[in-house]
């Protein structure tokens, strides 16, 4: 239910207000009257009629004294719409319901910004353009936004020049991310004030930065027309209509306890891509002291398992071969719907090990992430499954064993450590010590051999000493990650650290420490990658496109998520055929590599970021997994390092007799 003040709700009867802007026709049963002149506003300043000019609908926002600054903000504070409805019958429901009851015969609530768009075409003939910043969740949110906009009659513009509306889907995790958005808004403002200002598009800021800085964004002079938080995307067509009608900045920053957009089929940004993202949960309950996500994304809530499995099937039918399950804390997924409870066997409900704890009380019941991943991986054995971003506390042993047993669940785990110092981890409210983290890493690498680990690190957190920094460097040296995201601490207002801790590490010290851990990471990653060069089975690589540096070569992703670049050679049609061609050379029977193929690649060299190699054979996840198993059992020999343009892994190279045949089909 929308949290609207009684005063604003009295204005819901304004109908069919139509405005034209660059041919953008908007029709709405608006919450607000048409804009009034300054004299009208002055004359009616004390009036409570429906024609009163309203600057805000959020009870915690003071009306600005500058008459030019008129904003309409829907937020979580203040009386609800139910308060308004009950007030029409004189039934108070909260301490806010003081107003004189309204006459239901003259005041009827017709519309609120988040209601269903079914059957409405508010944007018919208008185009929108989207710029995406930040994490993979923002990419998925953009696909949800596109589905909502297209459903309301809008169409996506190919470039900014033809757009009636420009959306910036934003990130607020660090100051640098927000600075980029402010710079971009300044560019768009110049368009609004330039010679083509009559054709300047509306500007909407969406996502986490919108949720965090709603007032500042609306107050930015002529920069922003619309602000919308991550839980209110359904309302955007209505918000656009209100903004057009009233010529005022409008915002919906309501956080929801249950919004997951489970009923919306995302409109993929790159439908030709073989990779896709699927959001399974939203929000976060961890309340790490440095993190703004719980304040911009709200509490955790999970989609029902049926809607997830349905979308996975749809993506499989569309040819997707690499699917990433998304969530702010993805492995804390817990479906408490009727089916989620009934289908759950209670597997995977425990924490990673006794050294982990939570700041909140964990709840029992419902289907956990391990059981969901099990069901998702069974839908299409030839579709890889990844997941991000997890929390280290939610890796029960059952989840690790599932990952080790399913060929299509990638051996890639993101393990955000943030720091290697127990002292700093405590200040960060992470819920574990460095010793508990080490124990988890050992457990993962024991159960899931060859797993690729990645992590996040923050340098210069509040009170971090040189000894704390040495602990972080030590942890990174001992673990040796394949990938890492490293940043200097950036204070976020409203967080526990922003309110209670002192940002006392000088910027130059933060930078020096960041440079220290970057060097350590690259050395460790290079060690890990070089150890993988020439693996007996090679690597199973999904062909994703041409190399940016050399268009004559292919690039693809291996199971561990790292990139491998290889030549565009003809390859054998299967691994089995490469084993059974009795040493025959030449090009006979070979096939051309195609986008979306899985190919067996033997790696020849590595840096800290990628591999070089040679493609051997086209394959499948099932066949490659079977081949790996046979190698581990000693049933076939080791693939030799392949050099030269026309050499293939023939039977003689594998130590097989000339008449040996080997069936590795499932």
TrEMBL record:
Keyword Acetylation appears in the UniProt entry: no
Any matching Pfam family: UPF0004
Alphabetized UniProt keyword annotations: 4Fe-4S, Iron, Iron-sulfur, Metal-binding, S-adenosyl-L-methionine
Domain of life of the source: Eukaryota
UniProt keyword rRNA processing present: no
Sequence segments annotated as region (Disordered): 24-111
Ranges for domain TRAM: 530-617
PROSITE patterns: MTTASE_N, MTTASE_RADICAL, RADICAL_SAM, TRAM
Low complexity bias (residue ranges): 25-64, 87-111
Family per record: Belongs to the methylthiotransferase family. MiaB subfamily.
Matches recorded under NCBIfam families: MiaB/RimO family radical SAM methylthiotransferase
Identification of the protein by name: CDK5 regulatory subunit associated protein 1
Encoding gene per record: CDK5RAP1
């Amino acid at each position: 239910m929308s949290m609207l003040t009684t005063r604003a709700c009295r204005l819901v009867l304004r109908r069919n207000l139509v405005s034209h802007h660059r041919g953008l026709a908007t029709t709405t049963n608006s919450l607000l009257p048409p804009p009034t002149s300054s004299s009208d506003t002055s004359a009616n300043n004390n009036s409570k009629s429906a024609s009163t000019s309203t600057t805000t609908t959020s009870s915690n926002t003071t009306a600005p004294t500058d008459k030019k600054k008129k904003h309409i903000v829907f937020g979580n504070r203040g009386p609800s719409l139910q308060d308004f409805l009950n007030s029409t019958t004189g039934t108070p429901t909260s301490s806010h319901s003081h107003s004189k009851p309204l006459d239901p015969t003259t005041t009827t609530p017709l519309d609120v910004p988040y209601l269903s768009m079914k059957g409405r075409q508010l944007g018919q003939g208008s185009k929108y353009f989207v710029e995406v910043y930040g994490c993979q969740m923002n990419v998925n949110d953009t696909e949800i936004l596109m589905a909502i906009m297209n459903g309301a009659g809008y169409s996506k513009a190919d470039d900014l020049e033809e757009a009636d509306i420009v959306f910036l889907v934003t990130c607020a995790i660090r100051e640098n991310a927000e600075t980029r958005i402010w710079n971009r808004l300044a560019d768009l403002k110049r368009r609004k004030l330039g010679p083509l200002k009559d054709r300047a598009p509306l500007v909407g800021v969406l996502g986490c930065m919108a949720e965090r800085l709603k007032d500042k964004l609306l107050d930015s002079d002529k920069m922003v027309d619309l602000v919308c938080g991550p839980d209110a995307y359904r309302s955007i067509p209505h918000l656009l209509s209100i903004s057009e009608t009233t010529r005022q900045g409008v915002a919906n920053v309501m956080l929801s306890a249950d919004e997951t957009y489970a009923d919306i089929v995302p409109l993929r940004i790159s439908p030709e891509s073989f990779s896709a993202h699927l959001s399974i949960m939203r929000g976060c309950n961890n309340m790490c002291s440095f993190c703004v996500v719980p304040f911009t994304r709200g509490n955790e809530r999970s989609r029902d398992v049926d809607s997830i499995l349905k979308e996975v099937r749809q993506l499989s039918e569309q040819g997707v071969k690499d699917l990433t399950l998304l969530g702010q804390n993805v492995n804390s997924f817990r479906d408490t719907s009727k089916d989620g409870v009934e289908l759950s066997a209670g597997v995977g409900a425990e924490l990673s090990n006794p050294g982990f704890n939570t700041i909140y009380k964990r709840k029992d019941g419902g289907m956990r992430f391990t059981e969901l991943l099990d069901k998702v991986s069974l839908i299409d054995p030839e579709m890889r499954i990844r997941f991000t971003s997890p929390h280290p506390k939610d890796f029960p042993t059952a989840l690790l064993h599932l990952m080790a047993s399913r060929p299509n669940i990638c051996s890639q785990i993101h393990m955000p450590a943030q720091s290697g110092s127990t002292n700093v981890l405590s200040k960060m409210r992470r819920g574990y010590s460095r010793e508990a983290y080490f124990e988890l890493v050992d457990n993962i690498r024991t159960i899931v051999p060859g797993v690729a680990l990645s992590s996040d690190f923050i340098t210069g957190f509040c009170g971090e000493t040189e000894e704390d920094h040495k602990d972080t460097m030590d942890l990174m040296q001992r673990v040796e990650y394949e990938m890492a995201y490293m940043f200097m601490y950036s204070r976020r207002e409203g967080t526990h650290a922003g309110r209670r801790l002192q940002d006392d590490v000088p910027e130059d010290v933060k930078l020096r420490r960041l440079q220290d851990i970057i060097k350590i990471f690259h050395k460790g990653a290079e060690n890990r990658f070089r150890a993988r060069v020439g693996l007996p089975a090679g690597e199973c690589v999904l062909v994703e496109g041409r190399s940016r540096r050399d268009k004559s070569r292919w690039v693809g992703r291996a199971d561990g998520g790292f990139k491998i670049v290889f030549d565009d050679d003809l390859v054998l049609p299967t691994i089995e055929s490469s084993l059974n061609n009795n040493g025959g050379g030449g090009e006979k029977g070979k096939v051309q590599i195609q986008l979306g193929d899985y190919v067996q690649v033997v790696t020849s060299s590595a840096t800290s970021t990628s591999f070089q190699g040679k493609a051997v054979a086209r394959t499948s996840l099932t066949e490659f997994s079977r081949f790996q198993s046979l190698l581990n059992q000693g049933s076939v020999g080791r693939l030799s390092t392949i050099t030269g343009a026309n050499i293939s892994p023939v039977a003689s190279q594998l130590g097989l007799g000339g008449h040996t045949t080997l069936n590795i089909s499932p």
